[in-house]
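Field: COMPLEX_INPUT
Field: COMPONENT_COUNT = two
Field: RESIDUE_TOTAL = 991
Field: MODE = joint
Values follow.
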Amino acid sequence: MAALLSILAAFILYPLARVLYVAFAGEGGPTLSHLFAFFRRPLFREALYNSLLAGFLAVVFGSLIGLPLAYFTVKYDFKGKIVLQTLGVLPLVIPPFVGAVAFQLILGRSGMVNLLLLQYLGTTVPFMEGLPGVVLVQTLHYFPFIMLNAAASLTNIDPSLEEMAQNLGSYGFRLFRKVTLPLMMPGYIAGALLVFIRVIDDLGTPLMLNYTKLLAPQAYLRITTVGIDDVDGYVVCVILVILSLVSLWIARKYLSLSEYATVQRGASGSSISKKIGGLKLFIVLGISILILGISLLPHLGIALLSFSKVWSFSMLPTAYTWGNYDEILFRTPHFVKNTLLYSLLAASIDVLLGAIIAFLLIRGRVFGRNLLDAITTMPLAIPGVVLAVGYLRVFYGWNFPGIGKPLTATWFILVIAYSMRRLPYTVRACYAAMQQIHISLEEAALNLGASRRRTFLKITLPLMFGGLIAGGLISFVTSSVELSSTIMLVPKMEFGPLSYGIYIYMQSAIGRGPGAALGVVAIGLVAVGTYLIHRIFGGRTGSAFRV
Amino acid sequence: MRKIAVCCLILFLALAFSAFPAFAASKEVVVVTSFPKELFETYKKAFEVKHPGIKVVINQKPTPAGVTYIRETRAKPDADIFWVSAVDAFQALKSEGLLEKYTLPKEIAARIPSKIGAFPIHDPDGTYFGFAVSGYGLMWNKPYMAAHRLSPPREWTDLTDPKYYGHLVISAPSRSGTTHLTIEVILQAYGWEKGWALLLNAGGNMGTITERSFGVPEAVITGQYGAGVVIDFFGLSAIASGHPIDFAYPSMTSVVPASVGIIKNAPNPENARAFVNYLLSEDGQMVLFSPDIGRLPVIPDLYAKGPKDYPNPFVMKLGGITFNEKLSSDRRLIVNSLYDHIITFRHAELKAAWGAIYKAEEAIGKARAAGKDVSAAMKAVGEARKLATTVPIDGKRAADKELNKAFKEKPDVKSRLETEWDSFAKANYAKAKELAERALAAVR
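Field: COMPLEX_OUTPUT
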């Protein structure tokens, strides 16, 4: 516990404090006046309102997309399911800047869709403009959070509960509403919360759509402007942190109202997924393909762009080439290699820490549980730039014990940044998974003479495996396209990961092709990883997200 | 299970070892730059051929992040060279004493004039040196302009033409040092009030205002928007890469140097000086002509050796104004923040106001042709135009030294002014829209 807290303090709290104290520094002492000034400015009030609205709408639309997909992939058994599960994760990995270009190529003012509309209907739809555009892109980008978490939760529901309801005459939507939905609530709420906080903190989407009346871009623009230390930027960061903590607290209150644990985890052994066929299969597949088809449009755009030489104001590229792949695979292969290394390391650290923290949060009686909870959630609300500046302030200029040079001069600083920034995801996922494990299972082990440690290793850990994998996967996937802290922390170009390579390429007209090719590699990596996890654990259980 | 774990571990270790590069390079020069890959890769190769044994280590960051990085690492710098476009960034570093003074060798210094137009090429105090110049201009997408039946804009004043409504794109001056200089050229050429009127009207015509300077060429190349205000090499390199793009300098353009400086207490000072010397030598300057770089050398004689029809800023008729560099840097923070608060952050409102004004004016034109009395509507639209072109602070106050100092150092002053401008803009644009809509209703 002490070791854990000191890790978190060193890599989250202290760097954050070193940056955020600016928001409270006045002439002659700490002051709250900057914080009050925030609420007097119409611009910030509107930004706050817009951020909340965007978060809410993205959760609503994300649920409409994510819940049916989660339900289909868990409850039904059909050919191509594993493909569906794999594709469902891909929207998360639109790398920033390539995503910007790809979304514009497909849905933008002169994108594929609008050029088609113009040709046949003589009109265009402003998909990508203003707040609706931001919400659209964010929904398509983040709904997998809801899908993954709801699916993990669904698989953990004891089938006998549903069978009981069915025996009592409850079927169809009533069964879903009265039994299944309440039982999958922990996972769903965890996913929805992730989406909400991610949307509020999201910088890439508003920046790529040039929509600045939101909190995150306001903070970013103010902190990174040359030649001025803008206190308001840090005040906005404080507001962001508070918002995330409050929404977390509300969700926690709500969840604590009811008992969700399922006692007979795995005991009944019966499969919970039904084989389906005929019309039902047709409908399920139809809906899934439609949803995924839309959310994967940008990936199609990236793929096309990666083979294109010239693509400008036309439905499809006008000149194609293989050269872009030649460039990134043979001339600059280190981008891909670094990404694999950093993200795998970060994901392993996250899974390890996440499992321990989730265990302490749920089963621990230790002092400081709420504090631990608050600290592990914080990184969600810390803009990457802020954490990066904090790291530079704390770790720069003195040799870190054991490596003989400052931590910021090695690539390991990137691994730390990724693992800390993604830790909340793994903690949430592990938390949701563990919440469904009834304590009586552990108590039984304890009664039979197992030590607490042994109980954790032999009973709790295997039971929460799905949650761990889901959490680790989310950490890996999102780390591999992380950009905002990467830009600040990369010590030199040779250490740069994929996202950094993409960033460098996408700055010029000639680099768009290779940048997109790197994007395709990123997507490919994640797709293969996801598929493998499904395969490896699928042999035994059908899916990684089902224990 | 165990097998998988072992496999993972092996894979993992293999990766870990292969990713650790050898730290054998004893001689290197570490360069922090915001330039695109084509530029720094080409220079890296050329320099390493010229100086065998010195390895160029590139650390690419956007300019603001680069400044923050150097600021945060001042205790023990590990970078030798700062190499970006924006003069602002060098001035910020210089004022904090983070740049090393250096005197160029005579044979190099002699070939470079001290000024381009009215703009000094090198820092007079010798802390940073211009290695290439760039002019600002307009780039446009040819198929887009053809599809929308538009002729390309040629002058800054063209940007206010109603026909370009929603077709233009610019980056925010607070995000791009070069846009800031363009804004200054306009303000100094037309005067404070008229200049802002032009900027506000053009701002209303913008389809979007990007937060990254390469957002503009990206938007024009993909054809999201028709024409954009860009620095020349974005246009020139897009043309070189085969995209259907064209580029032109307006008659009143600013030509500004992109610079390089040596960081104070750099770990490899000798190599740093060699790098600066190389950039400014004839060999280094010739590299700028290559098509995917497309920048303008600072040695005037070299243009004779360059590609045919290459723009030569030393013979171009520039500006027609004497650019006051001091005024520009004195009021930079206020001008940038003002632009953000009355244009960037209120772009939706500003755009709506101008849309309503154009609609009303079109209807008035038709009504007048039909012989109706349009005087009341004309008056309302006139007022709307006035509201949508008024700037909330006068030129004298904006350039006031005390106020700029307070704006930089006192968060309360800054917060108060920004709130004032923001509220002013919001109220004015809403009123302008309302007036224009009333005028439209009156002539219908």
